[in-house]
Amino acid sequence: MNKINWGIIGCGDVCEVKSGPAFNKVNNSSLVAVMRRDADKAKDYAARHHVPKFYSDASQLINDSEVNAIYVATPPSTHEQYVEEALKAGKPVYVEKPVTINSASCARMIALAKKYNNKVSVAHYRRALPLFTTVKNLLEKNVIGKIRFVRISVLQQPKQKYTNTQEPWRLDPSLSGGGLFHDLSPHQLDILYWLFGEPVSSSGRSFNQAGLYNAPDVTTIDASFRNDILFQGIWAFNVAENSREDVCEIVGEKGKLRFSFFINSDLHVVTDKGTDTVAMNFPVNIQLPMIESVTKYFRGEGPNPCSLDEALVTLRMMDKTLS
Length: 323
Fold this sequence. Notes:
InterPro entries: Gfo/Idh/MocA-like_OxRdtase_N, Gfo/Idh/MocA_oxidrdct_glycsds, GFO_IDH_MocA-like_dom, NAD(P)-bd_dom_sf. By secondary structure, this protein is α/β, with parallel strands linked by helices. It is built from ten helices and 14 strands.
C-alpha cells in the first residue's frame, strides 16, 4: 500500500478534532471518504473538513475502490459488524476503543482477522502520547525503584438526569457495553497492561447508586500484576463538583509518579531528592501519533501499535466488573 486512503465509518464528535483531521497530517495518509447514517451530517462533515466523498451507508464506503483502509468510530455495539465487513472486503481496520462491547465479541474479531489474513489496530492511542512514553521510560530506568502499587481515581459529577429516551449511547449498555466506565477505563487499563503486562488476577464491582440512567455509575477494580504489583481503581460519575478528581499514582520503593489521564497534566516525579515536574501537553489532534504508527503498520513499515489480542486483556478486566 503506497498510500493509505482512509474511509471513516461514524464521523461524529470523536472525529471532529481528536482523530479526523490527523489522517491528512500523517505522511502517506489521506482521508478520502466519511460515512454517517444522517446524510446531511455526513455531507456537513465532509464539507467542513474538505473530504472528497461522503456516504450514509457503511457498505458503500467500505466498497469504494478509492478507500483502502477503514477507521471504525461508531458506538462499540457495531464494531464487530463493520470490522468483519471491512476485512471481508480486503481492507485493514483501525477501530475505536472500547474495541467492542465484551471479550467474547473481541475473540470473534481476532478470529475474523485470522480468517481474512488482514490487519486490525485498536485506538488505545495514549500509548503514543509523550506523557505515557515518558512514564514508561522512567519505570524502565528504575527511577522510583521496585513498583509497589498503582492507584487510579476518576471522580466526576453527573451532568444531568437522563430519561430512557434522552440518554446518550455511552449510557446505554446495549450500545456501549456498560456506562461511562466502559468509555473511559479502556485508556487506563490498557496503559497498565502496556506498562506491567497481563494481570495475574483481576476482580471488580459495579453499582448504579444514583439511578440517573440504566447503567452503572460507580465501578471498582482490584488487580495484581507480575512482581507483586497491586492495583486499585475507582470510577465514580455521581459525586459533587468539589470532589472531582483525575489522578494516577504509581508508587515505588523510592518514590512515585503522579499524573492525570484526561486533562492536560504535568508529570510529577517524587523521590528523596524532591519533586521534579515535567511539563506535558496533549497534541490538539490527540490521536495523531497513534494514527502515524497505524499508517506505518498498514504500509508494512512498523509493528502493530495495539493489537486485538492486547485489547482483549483490557476487555476481560472490564467484563469482570459486571459479573
